[in-house]
Amino acid sequence: MSTVEQRVFTLARKILPGAAQKDMSRDLDLVTDLNADSLSLVSLIYAIEEEFRMDTAELGSLVTESRTLGDLVDAVQDRQR
């Protein structure tokens, strides 16, 4: 597991309603498996922005590109390159 993956999983576990009781994996669906609603998704995206010092302009694309935890991890890794 990469450092980025660990950090995203930690943020998801803290913020998403259904994440606390789950074994975290890249294939977990943010809405279906982790019970994310629009408010918790926005909170998660802002936490990722802060954690990884990303530009706020990139937040919209993070939301639209990400359906699973793995999608979020990949999006963060792509923006760090």
Short description:
The protein is an all-alpha fold and 81 residues long.
Helix share, percent: 55-70%
Distance between the termini: 18 Å
CATH architecture: Orthogonal Bundle
User: What would you give as the CATH superfamily?
Assistant: ACP-like
pLDDT below 50 for ≥5 consecutive residues: which ranges? Answer: none
Can you describe this structure?
The structure is a single chain. The protein is mainly α and 81 residues long. It has a single domain, classed as ACP-like (Non-ribosomal Peptide Synthetase Peptidyl Carrier Protein, Chain A, Orthogonal Bundle), CATH 1.10.1200.10. The protein is built from four helices and no strands. Helix 1 runs antiparallel to helix 2 (38-52) and helix 1 packs across helix 4 (69-80). The longest helix is centred in the middle third of the chain and has 15 residues, at 38-52.
What brief labels describe this structure?
Non-ribosomal Peptide Synthetase Peptidyl Carrier Protein, Chain A, 58% helix, globular, single chain, 81 residues, 4 helices, mainly alpha
Write the layout of secondary structure elements.
Elements: H1 3-15, H2 38-52, H3 59-65, H4 69-80
